[in-house]
Design brief:
The structure holds 2 protein chains of 2 kinds.
Chain A: H1 23-28, E1 43-49, E2 55-61, H2 63-66, E3 71-75, E4 85-86, E5 93-94, E6 100-101, E7 107-113, H3 116-123, E8 127-132, H4 139-142, E9 167-175, E10 184-192, E11 204-209, E12 215-219, H5 224-235, E13 242-246, H6 262-272, E14 276-279, H7 282-288, E15 291-292, E16 295-303, E17 309-319, H8 327-336, E18 347-354, E19 361-362, H9 369-387, H10 391-398, H11 418-427, E20 456-469, E21 479-485, E22 491-494, H12 504-516, E23 521-523, H13 542-564, E24 569-575, E25 598-611, E26 616-627, H14 634-653, E27 659-660, E28 663-664, E29 683-688, H15 705-722, E30 728-729, H16 733-737
Parallel strand pairs in A: 1-14, 10-30, 12-13, 15-19, 17-18, 22-23, 26-29
Antiparallel strand pairs in A: 1-7, 2-6, 2-8, 3-7, 4-5, 9-18, 10-16, 11-12, 11-14, 16-17, 20-25, 21-22, 21-24, 25-26, 27-28
Chain B: E1 2-7, E2 10-15, H1 22-29, E3 48-51, E4 54-57, H2 63-66, E5 70-72, H3 85-93, H4 102-115, H5 121-127, H6 139-151
Parallel strand pairs in B: 1-5
Antiparallel strand pairs in B: 1-2, 3-4, 3-5
Helix pairs in contact in B: 3-6
The chains are: A alpha+beta, B alpha+beta.
């Protein structure tokens, strides 16, 4: 990364709002993103993709494509020299489709050509004969249909044994006596569409052969080392011959956890002995990464007359799409946080993720907790109405606190100030209602609203959410850092923590400056070459883990220098969070060690205006209080809260990948809408600093809680404004004006099937 | 075909094909990748440049159409080694996260402030509504626009 000396950077330590070190190259256009890379003699790679959601491949003929102008290679599964399949957790996904395609847009062949246009044209000449098969598209029926993966890739990994076809993971959490009845019960059915990460920087990278059989891959990713560990076996190379370097990343949000161009570009580069660049178009990007799981949720909440929750029963169905990706972990998160941040002594949570021929789903900001928060918070509002208790009071009455147990039996031992975030959010003053007439830009629906405000109703909503920090269920997602103290007093830090825009580069530097008490620190480029794995920039873990690793390595380096009496030192240390253990496969209860490392919560208040005649909406204001542990960089924390809130607003009001028989019908920013400057309200955020005792400096990850809670907070306000149930997101104008009924849950047990 | 352009004040020429976008020519032939390729459909504004002083999406302009015209990209907004006041404001307010939208937003903001030196809140929102950002939720971008406007 180049940092031209336009203005002097203000350097800073832990706790200061420090300017990003990459901000200047990013505002001048000099920052090199993965799609900006070039190499001498470079070719362009293009992927041939399946036009079917489910089909048998009967033949692939590349002969016409090979003869096209500028073409240097056309590759199919036959050209994959090593393992033919890969996967983040289970190797169930072909590098290139072999005899069957399982989703619309699945990669089938690759082309490399001198110019991108030549590669595109040659890709169109690859003749693939398909025999279409009936796609499995209804997740409810998937468990009775033909198995898409007859070898059941997720079997034998310690999950509950569920022999039904197409089950990725089935988790049941039995807590206390789920048959307990209360004085009042409310139930509901909830549904969420497929959300896309819609990061702006499309999947991109450059693979450069080293002339000795190995390859360097410069790519936008979230976890360099796990990319290497998936890529190398497919190329039939030892890991040290596959070197992954971080190309500039234009956003991630979970969508870069799985591989995209990595193996493909490397195959083309090794085959042609030329550097090969691949850049997805926006349309292709919708096929190129996993999405947020769509969900169907049945919930029943039972409470005592005075408001105390006595039992929660929930059945959750997650559509994982064609390949497993991280569906098993999303299943656990959806289940473990299904009750929300409330103490409840009895619960039955039944969650199943399934394979279908819909778009593959995996990690997206909030990771399972978003889906169940949407149901749980709607239920809390319903319960408050049934009990005639103020919804905020009801939440305070049930707020989880240290010492309480989660439905998995895990006690809360660290920081989790649920009541505090509720109070602080509730204390934020609401904006005054705006008068009419007003500039149409400030009407629900903006200038497209042809009314004069006659149908506009205001609503105020509230929601609380929480989720885990770091990986769970026994996964040791450690982070390495290497510190070189040089003779001139400067230091060089190596850490593979992927900078995806969240600002972890600043975290690393702020920690190093604090620990080494010097400003003269350089962060080496992120790579698998000279430092161990940092784990993934996901799960609200990277700040905690990178801060821990850099702190540990800095302190070790200082100690070593003192022991040696000076001179250069070079030490690498690996930081681990406290151990976790898997959940019991039969009961969903913890087995000794806890399943999760720690938690973070957020409460959010929102004001909306709804034109109930036109079905148009406007989010007027959002106020939130978030549990952030210790803010290493308060300005960056606010940025995470504002941005995370925007993604939840998108899910509430506009974002959904639409499919028809498994085929995506809106793979563009023309048809898949994300919030613009006209959609986002001002966000007042309060940082609640309650240091996490287990974490370096008391930090907590901050990226996910706002996304977990904001969809729910906006829906709460929309319901208040309209009086409608609005049980499906994104909410559409038709849902508000009542052109059709509420989404009904498919026939089936409500709320749960007994274990 | 050959096109002749004046980019950031420098005359230059490039060999392009008839269907090639100005964005591709800038990024891949003229060594100016600052204009970004987020959607290449004219929906996101990340490739915003000035074409004879008018803000356009470079992905929607053919290089052939730009033949003989002047283009200013984010790389040419400020003199070498200096920051434009809008760029400074984006850095200071924390308006940059992943930064992929930033070049387009910087260009759109500079264009707005040229036309409306003291824009209202609504004018800022309207003017930047063609530039999407996925990271920031826009709050700090609005802060940057106001700061740049205050400084004139």
């Amino acid at each position: 990364m180049s940092s031209p000396a336009h203005t002097k950077l203000v350097l800073g330590r832990v706790g200061e709002s420090v300017r990003r070190v990459d901000a200047i190259p990013k505002v001048t256009g000099e920052f090199a993103y993965a799609s900006d890379l070039h190499a001498a003699g470079m070719l362009w790679g293009k992927t041939v993709r399946s036009p079917h959601a489910h089909a048998r491949i009967t033949s692939i003929d590349v002969s016409d494509a090979v003869g096209m102008p500028g073409v240097h290679a056309v590759l199919t599964h036959d050209d994959v020299p090593g393992q033919k399949r890969y996967g983040l957790e289970f190797p169930d996904q072909p590098v290139l489709a072999i005899d069957r395609v399982r989703y619309f847009g699945e990669p089938v062949a690759l082309v490399a050509a001198d110019e991108p246009e030549q590669a595109l044209r040659a890709a169109g000449k690859v003749k693939v004969e398909y025999e279409p098969l009936e796609p499995v598209v209804d997740p409810e029926r998937a468990t009775e249909q033909e198995p898409l993966h007859p070898d059941r890739p997720t079997m034998g990994h310690g999950y509950r044994d569920d022999p039904r076809p197409n089950v990725v993971r089935h988790l049941e959490i039995h807590h206390g006596d789920p048959e307990t009845t209360g004085d009042v019960a409310v139930s509901g059915y909830y549904e969420l569409g497929i959300q896309d990460q819609a990061f702006l920087g499309p999947e991109s990278g450059l693979a450069v052969p080293d002339g000795e059989g190995g390859v360097d891959i410069y790519v936008a990713t979230q976890w360099l080392h796990v990319d290497r560990d998936q890529v190398a076996p497919c190329l039939n190379l030892p890991p040290d011959q596959v070197r992954i370097h971080l190309g500039g990343v234009g956003g991630a949000f979970g969508g870069r956890e799985d591989l995209s161009i990595q193996v493909h570009a490397a195959l083309l580069a090794l085959h042609t002995a030329r550097p090969v660049k691949m850049v997805y178009s926006r349309e292709e990007s919708f096929f190129g990464h996993v999405h947020r799981h769509p969900a169907r949720i049945w919930a029943e909440h039972r409470a005592a007359r005075a408001g105390k929750l006595v039992c929660v029963r929930m059945r959750i169905l997650l559509d994982g799409g064609a390949y497993a990706s991280s569906s098993t972990a999303v299943t656990a998160n959806a289940s473990c946080f299904a009750c929300g941040p409330y103490a409840v002594e009895n619960a039955l949570i039944d969650c199943t993720s399934v394979y279908t021929n819909n778009p593959p789903c995996g990690a997206m900001r909030g990771f399972g907790a978003v889906q169940t928060c949407f149901a749980a918070e709607a239920q809390m509002d319903k319960l408050a109405a049934a009990l005639d208790i103020d919804p905020i009071e009801l939440r305070l009455l049930n707020a989880l606190k240290p010492g309480d147990k989660l439905p998995t039996g895990q006690p809360i031992t660290g920081s989790l100030p649920v009541a505090e975030v509720i109070r602080r959010a509730a204390d934020l003053p609401l904006p005054e209602p705006e008068e009419f007439p007003r500039d149409p830009i400030r009407l629900p629906g903006g200038a497209g609203n042809v009314g004069r405000g006659e149908g506009v109703r205001r609503g105020v909503g509230f929601a609380v959410g929480f989720k885990n920090l770091c990986y769970s269920e026994g996964f040791d997602d450690a982070c390495a850092a290497r510190v070189r103290l040089l003779a001139d007093g400067s230091a060089e830090i190596h850490c593979a923590a992927a900078e995806v825009g969240q600002g972890v580069t600043n975290v690393v530097l702020q920690v190093a400056r604090t620990e080494l008490d010097t400003e003269d620190i350089v962060l080496a480029p992120h790579s698998t070459v000279d430092v161990g794995s940092a784990g993934s920039a996901s799960a609200s873990r990277m700040t905690w883990m990178a801060a821990g690793a850099v702190q540990l390595a800095c302190r070790a380096a200082i100690e070593e220098r003192e022991q040696r009496g000076g001179g250069e030192v070079d030490v690498e240390r690996v930081f681990h969070h406290r151990r976790t253990a898997p959940l019991d496969s039969a009961t969903g209860q913890i087995t000794g060690a806890p399943a999760h490392v720690a938690f973070a919560c957020a409460a959010m208040r929102s004001v909306v205006e709804v034109d109930v005649e036109l079905g148009l909406t406007r989010v007027v204001w959002i106020g939130t209080a978030q549990d952030v542990g210790t803010a290493i960089n308060p300005q960056a924390v606010e940025g995470q809260i504002e941005g995370g809130t925007a993604q939840g607003l998108g899910l509430a009001l506009m974002e959904e990948i639409q499919t028809r028989d498994g085929l995506i019908t809106n793979a563009s920013f023309t048809d898949y809408l994300i919030p613009t400057t006209l959609d986002m309200p001002p966000v007042d955020s309060v940082l609640v600093e309650d240091p996490e005792p287990d974490a370096p400096y008391g930090v907590k990850g901050v990226g996910e809680p706002p996304t977990v809670v904001s969809t729910s907070a906006i829906l709460s306000a929309l319901r208040a404004a309209t009086g409608k149930e609005l049980n499906r997101v994104p909410v559409k104008p038709d849902d508000i004006v009542g052109l059709h009924d509420e989404v009904a849950g498919p026939a089936g047990p409500s709320p749960v099937s007994p274990g | 075909m050959k096109v002749e352009l004046v980019v950031n004040g420098e005359p230059c020429e490039a060999e392009v094909w008839g269907g090639e976008s100005l964005l591709h020519t800038l990024r891949e032939r003229l060594g100016l990748p600052g204009s970004k390729n987020a959607c290449e459909q004219g929906e996101c504004g990340s490739c915003s440049v000035l074409l004879d002083g008018t803000l356009v999406c470079a992905c929607l302009v053919l290089s052939a159409q730009a033949d003989g015209h002047e283009i200013v990209t984010v790389e040419g907004l400020a003199p070498e080694g200096k920051l434009h006041p809008v760029q400074e404001a984006f850095v200071e307010t924390g308006a940059v996260q992943c930064g992929f939208c930033t070049p387009g937003l910087v260009m759109a903001t500079a264009d707005l402030l040229l036309r409306r030196p003291d824009p209202s809140e609504d004018e800022i929102r309207e003017a930047l509504s063609g530039n999407v950002c996925r990271c920031t939720g826009y709050a700090k971008i609005f802060d940057a626009v106001r700061l740049a406007a205050e400084r004139g």
